[in-house]
UniProtKB/TrEMBL annotation:
This is Putative triose phosphate/phosphoenolpyruvate translocator, sugar phosphate transporter. The keyword Repressor does not apply. It is found in: Plastid, Chloroplast membrane. One of its GO terms (cellular component) is chloroplast membrane. Its main location: plastid. It is a multi-pass membrane protein. NCBIfam families: tpt. Keywords: Chloroplast, Membrane, Plastid, Pyruvate, Transit peptide, Transmembrane, Transmembrane helix, Transport. The chain crosses the membrane at residues 116-133, 145-165, 177-200, 256-275, 287-310, 330-346.
């Protein structure tokens, strides 16, 4: 087999070995009695794959997504702020295929301002809708265990529909894969139910301020496991700690259960990140949306039996009180349904956002998302906000922004070394 690279870098011509002996520069005109078999010349031209539908709420994606957000989208590896494709990324301008031929990589098109606005707009909108209707439902039906279970159930049904209609490729399920998911699903369950408990006890804005302290737990736990961070990262978590502390002591709706719920949620999601990085390295071929769907299904099996034990005996009476408070049963059903559907959608949207934009842009957008959600919920529910409380919230969120910048710089330096 002989490979000839022509002047065009995008075309490779491969000649099959022949028993005829002709000069390599011979042309068909000089060989009138010779016919080249069609199978002897193989033209390899890079083609852009057709865009596939991945059932994203705001359109199409040209490649599978890679991340899971609870979710808060900051997972390393599986849930990291850096997307992971189903195909390995090229380490240089081109890489060899199995036949030893060089195939150039197709550069990713740059996202326009209009596309970026649409991505962030829909992501923020879905997150705001979830937080508003989740809180509305919890105000009249204060049973977070059941509501959290329903949100996982809604996401599970959504994914089953996508798989059955072939709008999303169904993952290959194996026993090792299920075993590897058990740990991340457990910590995801802990993070999700703890956040819902916090939402039921305090204002949504306060929960989000405390949840902005997740980087603090991430740095501390990862450091215990041997990972090192530059001084800029450690300095960036100081304003997060100070801002959250100031917001907590000045919060009008302060409740100890609400505070602990938000803190435990941070711990759960951080441990999920770390555990996922260790246990799911052998399943990189499964894209992030499928991983999130599988984790939602397993988390539902974790959570619902415990929910029945914790508050199941109060659901019937609570349901009647909720209907009496709202007036129309359909209104209550509508709130619960929106909280479940948009919980899944805003996580799904975060995956596509990661697929379309850089990790640094995503981290900045995620920080601004908290600001938008906090402001929106304060306006909708008319929560009283003291000046010091607003200052503490702003300092904490600014610290989160500094952390995202510092960690992004750390990743760039690590990539340059590699």
């Amino acid at each position: 087999m002989l490979t000839l690279n022509l002047n065009s870098p995008s075309i490779t011509v491969t000649f099959a070995k022949s028993t005829h002996h002709y000069p390599i520069n011979a042309s068909p005109s000089s060989l009138p009695n010779t016919r080249f078999p069609t199978s002897s010349v193989l033209l390899h031209t890079p083609t852009k794959p057709f865009t596939r539908i991945y059932a994203h709420p705001f359109g199409f994606s040209s490649k599978p997504t890679s991340q899971i957000h609870g979710l808060n989208p900051k997972f390393p590896s599986l849930f990291s702020s850096k997307p992971r494709s189903q195909t390995p990324k090229a380490s240089s301008a081109s890489e060899a295929n199995p036949n030893g031929e060089i195939e150039p990589t197709v550069p990713k098109p740059k996202v326009t301002t209009a596309q970026l606005s649409l991505i962030f707009g829909l992501w923020y909108f879905q997150n705001i809708v979830f937080n508003i209707y989740n809180k509305k439902a919890l105000n009249v039906f204060p049973f977070p265990w059941l509501l959290a279970s329903f949100q996982l159930f809604a996401g599970s049904v959504w994914m089953l529909i996508l798989w059955s209609l072939k709008l999303q490729p169904c993952p290959k399920i194996s026993k090792p894969f299920i075993v590897a998911l058990l740990g991340p699903a457990l910590f995801h369950t802990i993070g999700h139910i703890s956040a819902c408990v916090s939402f039921s006890k305090v204002a949504v804005s306060f929960t989000h301020v405390i949840k902005s302290a997740e980087p603090v737990f991430s740095v501390v736990f990862s450091s215990f496991l041997g990972e090192t961070y530059p001084i800029q990262v450690w300095l960036s978590i100081l304003p997060i700690v100070m801002g959250c502390s100031l917001a907590a002591v000045t919060e009008v709706t302060f409740n100890l259960q609400g505070l602990w719920g938000a803190l435990i949620s941070n711990v759960g999601f951080v441990l999920r990140n770390i555990y996922s990085k260790r246990s799911l390295q052998s399943f990189k071929e499964v894209d992030g949306l499928n991983l999130y769907g599988c984790i939602s299904i397993i988390s539902l099996f974790y959570l619902f039996p415990v929910a029945v034990l914790v508050e199941g005996s109060q659901w019937v009476q609570g349901y009647h009180r909720a209907i009496a408070s709202v007036g129309e049963p359909s209104t209550f059903y509508f709130w619960v349904l929106l909280s479940g559907v948009f919980y899944h959608l805003y996580n799904q949207s975060s995956y596509q956002a990661l697929d379309e934009i850089s990790p640094l842009t995503f981290s900045v957008g995620n920080t601004m998302k908290r600001v938008v959600v906090i402001v929106s919920t304060v306006l909708v529910f008319r929560n009283p906000v003291r000046p010091l409380n607003a200052l503490g919230s702003a300092v904490a969120i600014f610290g989160t922004f500094l952390y995202s910048q510092a960690t992004a710089k750390k990743k760039k330096e690590a990539e340059k070394k590699n």
